[in-house]
Design goal:
This protein is an alpha+beta fold. The chain is built from seven helices and 20 strands. The relative contact order is 0.15. The structure holds fe (ii) ion.
């Protein structure tokens, strides 16, 4: 579907005079201003873990943790013209910490998460709570929550990060506050109030919490895997869990919304498209995805993007495969802009 061709043609000197007066004629740029459907700037893209991994060693050598805010390698789609963007509204990255490294405390308005891929022995401190990072654990660092990271193991640690920095930059709504890198009390904490939110289905009746974002910061990988194993398939053929705020049952954060899908082997999911954006981390297994006109074959810890309003279908090969999926869906829900279609 296209806009009809405009019947009115303005004299170019009239348009020039309008422009010189800081005015634009709507009639000659109506099509640009009101596209008939969303048009993602970016084609889908796959980043292979083996290509990223070879840079982790050099990142450790060249960027001392005390000299940098974070030692993260951000996945970038060149379709954004050099901007640090993975797909619209979202970035994904891998962070590298050597034994003893501490990524200093800070807080900011954008929302971020970590997903533990090779992170056994690491911990993230969020608002005075120590969150361990075992295989498949998800750690939230919601807007304006203080957070820092530490590697207390004897081996190098790498985890997957995602954040809605491009969205918040587009709105020019980011605030950033550095913490004190020498403040030992920041690191000397235990699980703290995180234990108020670890029991599914029950919450403290007198615990006050304003539900802007989830009060629970750590989502254990083994709990996610247990639920995935018990779930029936959804309409697209995959079993999918949504990480939720236990006080509302809704997304964990207003503008960052997280899922895990278990794909059945050898059977492609029904193609789906949505107005929101997605980044998929392959947590386990092998398979392929057709996103728009591109087909990718992927294996563990590869990452690929599904730009908005692009048909996507996935298939596991050999055995089941799990995809951790970062989206901006909750932001679209809040703006009443979410539209989804299934073939
Ligand atoms: Fe941060």
């Amino acid at each position: 579907m296209q806009h009809p061709t405009p019947k009115v043609k303005s004299e170019s000197d009239f348009v020039a005079q309008l422009e010189a007066s800081n005015l634009h004629p709507l009639w000659d740029r109506f099509r640009t201003l009101t596209p008939v459907k969303p048009q993602a700037k970016d084609p889908p893209l796959l980043w292979r873990w083996k290509d990223i991994e070879r840079f982790t060693e050099r990142a450790v050598r060249e960027a001392a943790i005390d000299d940098v805010e974070r030692r993260a390698l951000i996945l970038v789609n060149p379709a954004f013209g050099g901007e640090t963007v993975t797909t619209s509204n979202l970035i994904a990255a891998f962070t590298v910490l050597d034994p003893g490294d501490r990524a200093r405390p800070h807080r900011h308005t954008f929302a971020a998460i970590r997903f533990a891929t090779h992170a056994e022995g690491a911990a993230t401190i969020v608002n005075g709570r120590r969150c361990e990072m075992h295989e498949g654990d998800l750690i939230l660092t919601p807007p304006m929550c203080w957070h820092g990271h530490i590697n207390e193991s004897d081996h190098r640690i790498v985890w997957f990060d995602a954040a809605n920095i491009p969205l918040i930059r587009g709105l020019d709504a980011n605030f950033f506050e550095p913490g004190d890198p020498k403040a030992n009390q920041f690191w000397q904490v235990d699980e703290g109030d995180e234990k108020l939110w670890t029991e599914p289905g029950i919450v403290g009746a007198d615990i006050q919490h304003a539900p802007v974002h989830s009060p629970k910061y750590r989502y254990a990988g083994d709990a996610t895997r247990r639920l995935l194993a018990a779930l029936p398939s959804g309409p697209d053929g995959a079993r999918t869990v949504r990480y939720t705020n236990p006080t509302t049952g809704e997304a964990v954060m207003p503008a960052l919304d997280l899922y895990m899908s278990r794909l059945p082997k050898a059977q492609a999911t029904r193609p789906k498209r949505t107005t929101c954006n997605m980044i998929c981390l392959v947590v386990s297994g092998e398979g392929s995805s057709t996103v728009g006109e591109h087909t990718f074959e992927w294996s563990q810890h590869d990452v690929f993007s599904i730009p908005h309003w692009t048909w996507a279908s996935h298939k596991a090969i050999g055995s089941n495969a799990d995809l951790f999926i970062v989206t901006d869906k909750s932001a679209f829900e809040r703006l009443d802009l979410l539209r989804e279609e299934l073939q």
